[in-house]
Amino acid sequence: MEFTSEQRLGDGVTEREFILGEIPGTLWTPESPEPATPAPLILMAHNNGLPKAEPRLVARGRYTAARGFAVATIDAAGCGERPRSAAAEQARADLRQAMRAGEPVDEIFESLVGPLVENAAPEWRTTLDALLSLPEVTGPVGYSGWTALGIRLAVAEPRIAAAGFFAGGFVPRAQREQARQVAIPLLMLLQWDDEGNPRQRALDLFDTFASKQKTLHANLGGHTGTPHFESEDATRFYTRHLK
Predict the structure, then answer these.
(1) Can you say whether the dihedral through the CA atoms of 175, 164, 53, 170 is positive or negative?
(2) What Å distances lie between residue 178 and 107, 156, 173, 199, CA to CA?
C-alpha cells in the first residue's frame, strides 16, 4: 500500500489517498490523543459503478471518521475511473432502455450486478489485509454501504463484525441465498419510495438475514433522500459493536 497524498481536514480528520496494486482508495482517520490509539475500521462501499469521490460517500466517510473510526473506501474493479468491461457497459445501456420503456429489468440487473459483486469482493479483502497492517487501524471491522457486496463480504470475511446496508431491493440471487448465512449485527436503511429498489424485496431480504440483532430504519423519500440523522444512528450502531 502506497499513500499518494495526505490532507488534514478542518473536522479533526486526516484524509489520505492510496494505491494498492491497481486499487485506488481513500482512508480517513481521526486525530488521536497521545499516546496514539488505533481506531476501529469501517469499510465504506459505494454502489456499483460510482466513484469513491462521490460527494455523499465522502461526507459520510468524514463524518464517521470525526467520531473516532478509521474509514476506507476504494474504487473496486469496474467502479469510478477504472476500466469497465464491454459486457457491463452493454448491460447498463440495456438497463436504461428497459427502465425508460417500463420493461422487466431483473435479468439485466442480474447480468450487471452479479459479476460486479464477484469481482469487487476479492479486492476489498485485499484492501482489508493491507489496512489492518497499519498501526493506526485496528479491528473489529464494520461494513457500510452497498447491500449486495456487503452480504458477499459478510459471508466470506470473518473479520467483519457488524454491517450497515443501504436499500436492498435488488440484490442478485446468489447474495439473496447467502443472506441466510449472515448472522452479524445489522442496521438496514430503506427509503420507502426508492424508485430503483422495490420495497417488498427489501423487506423480504431483511427477514432472510439470520442475525439475532438486526434493525430496519425506513424513511419516506427516494433513493438519495436518506435523512442526515441516520448518520448519527449509524455511528451509535458502530460504537456499540466495534468499540
Answers:
(1) positive
(2) 19, 10, 9, 20
Q: Which three cell numbers stand for residue 16?
A: 489520505
Q: Pick 88 or 33 by higher pLDDT.
A: 88
The 10s digit of each residue's pLDDT in 205-225 is: 999 999 999 999 999 988 788
Instruction: Find, among 200, 188, 222, 240, the residue nearest to 67 by Cα.
Output: 240
Cα dihedral sign, 180-182-187-190 = negative
Whole-number Å distance between alpha carbons of 215 and 197: 18
Three cell numbers, residue 81: 475511473
- Closest to 223 (Cα-Cα) out of 187, 197, 202: 197
Beta strand 70-74 with 39-45 is parallel
Q: Which three cell numbers stand for residue 196?
A: 430503483
3-state SS assignment for residue 109: helix
Per DSSP, what are the bridge partners of residue 43?
72, 143
C-alpha cell at 178: 447467502
Neighbouring C-alpha atoms within 13 Å toward the C-beta of 189: 25
Please enumerate in sequence order all residues whose Cβ is within 8 A of that of 221, keeping only pairs 6 or more positions apart, or say none.
191, 192, 193, 227
How many other CB atoms are found less than 10 A from the CB of residue 163? 29
Angstrom distances, CA of residue 167 to CA of 193, 196, 197, 235 = 11, 9, 6, 18
Cα distance from N-terminal residue to C-terminal residue, the chain: 26
- pTM (2 d.p.): 0.92
3-state secondary structure at position 175: helix
- The grid coordinates listed for 234 are 449509524
